[in-house]
Amino acid sequence: MKILNTRRRQKVKDLEELKEELQLDEHAITLEELYERLQTDPVMLIVGTVLIIAVVLTGLFQYYQESRSSQVMESFKKLVPAQACVIRDGMKHMVDVSEVCMGDIVEVNIGNRVPVDLRIISAARFKVDNSSLTGESKPQSRYNEISTDNPIEARNLAFFSSNVV
């Protein structure tokens, strides 16, 4: 019982000492006195606070933009066709787009997306919608004849991810 009372008295004494420390004049001074003691200017405190807020807001905005960019990149993956119909050794095969290689003959039909950049070797009333690439709103006809050396203007090329209409 005596041990408990002495411990309790010690805790009360420690608490009283802590209260006295908190009532020291450093904790009860005005802001002007604090600025004078620390030899600082209140304007610098405001500038520092504004800078911290600007850095935090910039970080939040950058995080938001990065997350939106990630969502857009994920949506682009949905636009890419997973498989393509290729003719190898005279036989049609469905292969992953990543397995299409130079020399493969790729067959595309109306409604398909062009799985890779293609050189047209045979076409009948073949049109592609390049609006996602060039911004042109009208579908463009494609032929198997070389029209120009400039690949963007060439009528015998169909570009990856354009729609066949």
From TrEMBL:
Keywords noted in UniProt: Cell membrane, Coiled coil, Membrane, Transmembrane, Transmembrane helix
Entry GO CC: plasma membrane
Residues of the P-type ATPase A domain: 79-147
Membrane spanning stretches: 43-64
Coiled coil (residue ranges): 1-32
Record's subcellular location: Cell membrane
Primary location group: membrane
Membrane disposition: Multi-pass membrane protein
GO annotation (BP), single: sodium ion export across plasma membrane
Domain of life: Eukaryota
GO molecular function list: ATP binding; ATP hydrolysis activity; P-type sodium:potassium-exchanging transporter activity
Name the UniProt record assigns to this protein: P-type ATPase A domain-containing protein
